[in-house]
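[Automated response] Your request has been received and processed.

Submitted sequence:
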Amino acid sequence: MTISNETKVGSLTAIAIVMLILGFNFLKGKSLGVNNTQYLAVFHDLQGLTKGNPVVINGKEIGTVYQTNGGKDMREMKVTINMKEEVNIPDDSYAVITKSFLGSVQLEIKLGDSKNLKKDGDSIRTIGTADLIGDAMKKLDPVLYQVTSAVKSLDTLLGTVNSVFDPNTKNNIRATMENLNKTTAALAVSSASLQGMLNTQTGSIAKTVDNLNSFTGALKNNNDKLTQTMANVETATGKFAKLDLQATLTNLDGTVSELKGMLAKANSDKGTMGLLMNDPRLYNNLNATSNKLNLLLDDLRLHPKRYINISVFGKKDKSGPLMVPLPDTVNAPYTNQ
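Generated structure:
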C-alpha cells in the first residue's frame, strides 16, 4: 500500500499542531498528564513570582504556577497552582514564596500535620515571603542574622521618619543642630575662660586668693594693734555708758527752753532787748542825735570863732548859725530833721 505525499504532509501537519498545543500548554504550566488538580493561594506581594514558576514540596517540583491575577486594585494577588503529581496536602499546610541564591523565584508548600486534606480548588494559607539567603545566614550565623534584621528595621524606621518629617521640620532640626554647634562652641570658649580663671599661677581666682591671704596676713600682723583698738573702744563705750545721759539731756532741754523764752522776749515789745529790736523810736532818736551832732560839727568846722575866740586882731564872727549840715557824699548822707 502506497501512502501519498498529501497524506504524509497532512499527518506531519497534524502531529506538529498537536505538539505545538502540548508545548504551549506545558509552557503555560498545564500538566501534560492525566492529573490536573489546582489550588489557590493569595499573596499581598508576589516578589517576582510569575506564570510558569515551579511549585515545590521539600525540594521536589510537584507543579507550576498556572496564572496570577491581581484584579483592578492589585491589593490581593491570586495565584493558581497547577499540580503535576497527585500529592496529599493537609489543611494546615501553607504556601510561601522563596528565592534561591541565584535570584530565581519559586512557590514552596510547607506541609502541615492535619489529617484532613485539601481538595481540588481549595485555597492554601499563605505567609510572608521567605528568603533562602536569610535562612542560610540564620543557620550559619544567628548574630549576623540579627544584625541584618536590625539594619532592616532601622532602614524601615528611617524611611518612616523621612516620610513623617516634612521639609519644614527637617529645616528646623537642621537649624537646631546649628544652634547646638554654636552653643557647644560658646561652651568651649567659656570653659577656656573658666580654665584661665582657675589657673593656679595667672588666674584671677588665684590672684584673689593671694590678695585674701595678704589681707588676712596683715590682720594677723596687726592683731595686737587691733586688740588695743578694740580695748580702747570698749573703754570709751564703758565711760560713755557711765555718763548720766538723762541729766545731761534734762539740762539741755532746760537750756533750750530758756533760750526759747529769751528769743520770745526779744521778738516781743517787752523788755530792753525787745524795745531795742522792735521799737522804731529808738532808731529815730539815734538818727536825730546823729543828725544834730553832724550839724554841730559842721558848724564848728565852718565857724570856729563862734565857739573859740583866740584871735588878737581878728574880729568876731557874727554870721548866723548853720541850720543844715553840709552834705557829705563820701561817708554818709545827712537827713533833714
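Summary generated for your ticket: The beta strands are 38-43, 54-57, 60-69, 77-83, 94-99, 105-110, 123-126, 130-131. Confidence is low (pLDDT under 50) at residues 329-334.
If you did not submit this request, please reply to this message.
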